[in-house]
Amino acid sequence: MQYTLSMFAFWTERASALEQFWFLFYLFLSGLIAPLEVFPPIVREIALWTPFPYLIHFPASVLVGLPVDLGRGLLVMLGWSVVLYIAYRWLWHKGLRQYSGMGA
Fold it and tell me: Quick count: other Cβ atoms within 10 Å of Cβ 95?
């Protein structure tokens, strides 16, 4: 995720601001500030389709033995990995074309 976000530095000098905005979602939706179980059910269900809970909440739940849908979790992590990899490669190639005019 971080590498994909860093690709936006090809187009904007505010790449760190984008990363800080992304970090807000990470703090709340990953379970770092509070477990996802304390959120309302609709927020929790939406959060489970984002990549954030699978960075902290999902692995921690598996390690301590909380009931989780292991298949869904692994599939969502795989799906986000593929999406972010494709986005990173696309942004990298587009960024090289953008930057190549400056002598790279």
Answer: 16
Whether the per-residue pLDDT at 2 is higher than 90: the answer is no
- Cα 82 to Cα 42, 79, 85, 87, 88: the distances in Å are 26, 5, 5, 9, 10
73 in Cβ contact with 49 (< 8 Å) = no
pTM of the predicted structure, to 2 decimals = 0.81
Alpha-carbon gap, residue 98 to 10, rounded angstroms = 7
Q: Give me the helices (H) in 2-69, please.
A: 2-6, 15-29, 41-47, 57-64
pLDDT digits (tens, 9 = 90+) for 13-49: 888 888 889 999 999 999 899 989 899 999 999 998 9
